[in-house]
Design a protein that fits this description.
Layout: H1 2-10, E1 26-30, E2 56-57, E3 75-78, E4 81-82, E5 86-87, E6 100-103, E7 112-115, E8 117-118, E9 128-132, E10 135-139, E11 151-153, E12 156-157, E13 159-160, E14 179-184, E15 189-193, E16 205-207, E17 218-222, E18 228-233, E19 236-239, E20 243-248, E21 251-256, E22 266-269, E23 275-278, E24 289-295, E25 298-300, E26 320-325, E27 328-334, E28 337-339, E29 344-350, E30 357-358, E31 361-363, E32 366-368, E33 376-382, E34 388-389, E35 392-394, E36 397-399, E37 405-407, E38 409-410, E39 413-415, E40 418-420, E41 435-437, E42 445-446, E43 449-451, E44 454-458, E45 464-466, E46 473-474, E47 477-479, E48 482-486, E49 499-501, E50 507-508, E51 511-513, E52 516-518, E53 526-528, E54 532-534, H2 536-542, E55 547-549, E56 558-560, E57 563-566, H3 608-614
Parallel strand pairs: 1-2, 1-3, 3-6, 4-7, 5-17, 6-18, 7-19, 13-14, 17-20, 18-21, 19-22, 20-23, 21-24, 22-25, 23-26, 24-27, 25-28, 26-29, 27-30, 27-31, 28-32, 29-33, 30-34, 31-35, 32-36, 33-37, 35-39, 36-40, 37-41, 38-42, 39-43, 40-44, 41-45, 42-46, 43-47, 44-48, 45-49, 46-50, 47-51, 48-52, ...
Antiparallel strand pairs: 8-16, 9-10, 10-15, 11-12, 11-16, 14-15, 53-54, 56-57
Length: about 625
């Protein structure tokens, strides 16, 4: 009796499943075709008969009902390569300290979901119609989600055309790939350029079309208010007509990879978007998603390298890596590698309905562009004050973006980021500001904070820009930033300008303090309202309707033109203004008091013990 009491005292309460058993349940789901029978889910091996002990077969057969199915404290192993959606049940939920774990680390067969449709009908010659010489079409009217977005023939992605007449040609330049397909949305047809009936030219045609099943357009779907307290471990999610992962309205969801180099978790490959975190309606009218944590994942569209440089024809990249939109709060997106998405790597927006995106943190991410020709590291936008507010973008490495990141909304913080190596994309060669304050008609852009960022090497346009436009830019605080090697000739009227402050009634009442603006060989690096192009000294003396002080054009003495860490005698050291306890550099080191200017805090002169901690 004493022995039994000891077990009861020391067995942790949080491991109990909803059945009240003394241990959690472990479940297994395997792909369609892996076993002849659908089992009860309680073993990896195949069931000897329907409903007997063995793995669930396909995500559609997972039982999410409390007590008898996957519930709080349980672990569901995703095993093998799935080709259909894992749709989490509408009432499925874990509990505080007892989340449901969806684990792709299946002990017998590592899991993944590849939501790319093999179009068997394309193998039947009679399903193709030759409309004109070498121009064939296939009906996709039977699909619910008809736009193929991306097409692969025998596992090789083919290039889209802008129109039917472009098929069989090289668009834009003589070296561009030949346009092979075009989607006719009016008639629900895929057109293909082929010299013979396409069914005879390949053995497999794949695309992102999807059927009518619930959430058929996404690899993992959590789209109910009740979907609370989950962890998703090492997901490997490919394809999806609309996205790879939906989190709509759920709360307390933790998505992560177990390797610090982000190699264990993959979201979005071969798709159109990575992950969408939004209210349950995804339109700003439903219950918001709250307490969502995403980290240590690679979120990459996997754009074909042979499509690099060919304008805007490759349209499926017109999506976001991480979209936190319309209704979300207390979202944390950190320590990820996010690359090559064609709208934004991180999109933070409250522009539909009346929902808000607030109190969220985006930090320590590697944000990079290497292939696609249009895209920004982040965009932040709100349709009214308080809609996109109190969000924090910090300690990110933004490398090679082809167009400008955008900061709007109100009371948001952008600090400790490194913006470097601006690229000149082929889609919009004038949208090359590194960080731009200008939203859309009806958006707000006010009272935001830009602290301790380093802008390094934008040879095409301004590094910070307050453009005249459709919304009012006011109340910004721009302090302790380093602008180095900024300015070029791509933005008309802002030639060789590093800091651009437009001459319009919609731009005013900002604070610019203790920023270093240095471009070797250029003296007039600031465009200031009616003054036009000006030196930093003239900008400060002409300052009117704003607060301008402590800004400098002196050589900041960084280590090199590609390394913005400071030399020992750099004037950036201890030259900043203290603005708050969150102040930290791009490597996570806390700021000095007063802080160094820019995204790097120095270590020289520290006591040995302090230096060890800071390093």
């Amino acid at each position: 009796m004493i022995w039994l009491l000891t077990i009861a005292l020391f067995w942790p309460a949080w491991v109990e499943a909803a059945t009240g058993s003394a241990s959690v349940d472990t479940w297994y789901v395997r792909p369609t075709g892996a076993c002849a029978n659908n089992g009860d889910g309680l073993a990896y091996d195949c069931a000897s008969g329907a409903g007997l002990t063995g793995a669930f077969i396909s995500g559609a057969n997972v039982i999410w009902t409390a007590t008898v199915g996957v519930d709080d404290g349980d672990r569901l192993y995703v095993c093998g390569v799935h080709t259909s959606t894992l749709n989490v049940g509408a009432s499925a939920a874990g509990a505080d300290r007892s989340p449901i774990s969806i684990d792709f680390r299946c002990p017998s067969d590592t899991g993944s979901i590849r939501l790319i449709a093999a179009m068997a009908e394309a193998q039947t010659a009679g399903n193709w119609t030759e409309e004109s010489t070498n121009i064939w079409y296939l009906s996709v009217a039977s699909y619910t989600w008809k736009d193929p977005k991306r097409i692969w023939l025998d596992s090789v992605e083919i290039f889209p055309g802008n129109s039917k007449s472009d098929l069989g040609t090289r668009e834009g330049t003589a070296s561009a790939p030949i346009a092979r397909f075009w989607y006719d949305s009016g008639n629900s047809r895929i057109y293909l350029y082929a010299t013979a009936n396409p069914s005879a030219t390949f053995s497999l045609m794949e695309s992102l079309v999807a059927g009518a099943a619930t959430c058929a357009y996404v690899a993992i779907c959590m789209n109910a208010d009740a979907n609370d307290f989950f962890e998703v471990i090492n997901p490997d999610l490919k394809g999806g007509n609309l996205a790879a992962f939906y989190v709509l309205g759920g709360d307390n969801i933790h998505i992560y990879g177990t390797d610090a180099d982000d190699s264990a978790c993959h979201i979005g490959a071969y798709g159109t978007r990575g992950i969408i975190i939004a209210d349950v309606s995804s339109a700003g009218t439903g219950n918001a998603a709250t307490n969502i944590n995403l980290h240590d994942c690679t979120i990459d569209v996997l754009a074909p390298t042979n499509f690099i440089g060919y304008d805007w024809q490759w349209k499926p990249s017109n999506g976001d890596g991480v979209a936190v939109v319309y209704g979300a709060s207390n979202v944390s997106v950190h320590s990820n590698t996010i690359r090559n998405w064609g709208h934004a790597l991180i999109n933070i927006a409250a522009t539909l309905g009346t929902g808000t995106v607030v109190d969220s943190h985006f930090y320590d991410n590697t944000l990079e562009y290497t292939t696609v020709e249009y895209g920004r590291c982040f965009a932040l936008d709100g349709a009214a004050t308080g809609r996109a507010s109190n969000n924090y973008v910090y300690r990110n490495d933004c490398n090679g973006q082809p167009i400008r990141s955008q900061l709007n909304g109100d009371a948001n913080y952008v600090f400790g980021n490194l913006f470097r190596n601006q690229r000149l994309g082929t889609v919009d060669t004038t949208a090359v500001q590194s960080l731009d304050m200008e939203g859309y008609t009806g958006s707000v852009s006010q009272d935001n904070f830009i602290y301790n960022n380093t802008f390094l090497n934008n040879p095409y346009g301004p590094c910070i820009s307050f453009r005249a436009g459709t919304n009012t830019k006011s109340g910004y605080t721009v302090t302790n930033n380093l602008l180095y090697g900024c300015g070029g000739t791509q933005v008309a009227g802002a030639e060789w300008i590093a800091l651009y402050i437009g001459n319009a009634a919609s731009v005013g009442n900002q604070t610019f303090k203790n920023n270093y603006i240095y471009s070797m060989g250029q003296t007039s690096t600031v465009y200031y309202k009616a003054t036009g192009a000006a030196t930093v000294a003239l900008f400060q003396s002409a300052c009117s309707g704003d607060t301008c002080a402590g800004n400098s054009a002196a050589d900041p003495k960084i280590l090199s033109a590609t390394d913005a860490r400071t030399q020992g005698d750099s004037p950036l050291r201890r030259a900043g203004l203290f603005w708050g306890a969150l102040c930290g550099d791009v490597r996570g080191r806390p700021c000095w008091l007063p802080p160094d200017i820019g995204a790097y805090q120095s270590t020289g002169g520290d006591p040995a013990a302090t230096r060890a901690v800071r390093n």
